[in-house]
Q: What sequence folds into this?
């Protein structure tokens, strides 16, 4: 094997390991008919629960697959469940617009089977209670009766940053 092939192989293996090791574990949504994302990355979290820091933005990358051709409008919907109570988390329109927050040069319209990554920056309020919280994120096809394109659950806990 040439040194270039060895170098290429080792680079590819290390990149694959980084991608596999870095993902955040997640669970399927209660409605099992909803498609799951391919991967989820919440900040640098690789074990649940993920820490969400008060007064910051949690960076959540969601890799998912388009479910139909010519998807022009997708939006994100977030719900938080703490102490048995589920509340919708109001995202401003800029953050919740999936098409405007796609990574790696991707853009809408999306087609069926197209693999893209959405970056959600989720503000964590400084007055958010420090309790275990289940995070549910749904990506919706707003031009197709808000059909769910991708959905996942992840356990989180809100914490105060150390001084």
A:
């Amino acid at each position: 094997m040439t040194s270039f092939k060895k170098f290429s192989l080792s680079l590819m293996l290390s990149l694959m390991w980084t991608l596999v090791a870095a993902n955040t574990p997640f669970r399927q949504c209660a409605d099992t008919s909803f498609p799951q994302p391919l991967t989820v990355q919440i900040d640098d979290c690789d074990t649940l629960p993920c820490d969400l820091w008060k007064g910051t933005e949690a960076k959540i990358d969601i890799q998912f697959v388009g479910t139909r051709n010519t998807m022009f409008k997708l939006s994100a919907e977030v719900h938080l469940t703490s102490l048995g109570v589920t509340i919708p988390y109001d995202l401003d329109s800029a953050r919740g617009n999936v098409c405007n927050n796609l990574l790696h040069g991707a853009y809408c319209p999306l087609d069926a089977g197209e693999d893209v990554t959405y970056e959600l920056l989720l503000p964590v309020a400084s007055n958010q209670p420090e309790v275990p919280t289940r995070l549910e994120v749904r990506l919706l096809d707003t031009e197709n009766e808000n059909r769910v394109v991708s959905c996942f659950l992840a356990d989180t806990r809100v914490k105060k940053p150390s001084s």
In short: The first helix runs from residue 3 to 21. Helices lie at 3-21, 93-96. Residues 4-21 have pLDDT under 50 and may be disordered. The chain has two helices and eight strands.
